[in-house]
Amino acid sequence: METPGRRTARSSYSHYLGIVEGESGPERAVSTMRITEELANRNGVLHGGALMSLIDHCAGTLAFALCPPEMTNVTLEAKTNFFRAARVDDTVTAVATVLHVGRTTLVAQVVTTRGDGKEVSATTQTQLFLEWE
């Protein structure tokens, strides 16, 4: 997804967390992350901040696919409902879909599930399209 003068959709931070990109395009984006001990909180379940990083990466990837070529995207706002825990050694899958695309913003919904298919969270996130120098 490299465009001259633009960065790729994947960051070194996402690589560090072990986020793996699946499907990626203007309709939806899919990312997965295996839960390691390093990503767990003191209770042995996925840390909310690590989950939010997966969600943000997935929504950002979707927005990047719809971003005008001369622009980039950043997260403007996110609202998440957490439903249930995901444990170490499980894999969480994030699926981002478009709710609205405007001239300067995109609103996405990201639903995460754990390996047994049960929902972990649902997020509504707004991405801003802007010029990047």
Automatic annotation (TrEMBL):
GO terms for molecular function: fatty acyl-CoA hydrolase activity. CDD domains: PaaI_thioesterase. Keywords: Hydrolase. It comes from the Bacteria. InterPro entries: ACOT13 (IPR039298), HOTDOG_ACOT (IPR033120), HotDog_dom_sf (IPR029069), PAAI_dom (IPR003736), Thioestr_dom (IPR006683). PROSITE patterns: HOTDOG_ACOT. The keyword Hydrolase applies. Residues 25-133 form the HotDog ACOT-type domain. Belongs to the thioesterase PaaI family. This is PaaI family thioesterase. It comes from Ornithinimicrobium avium.
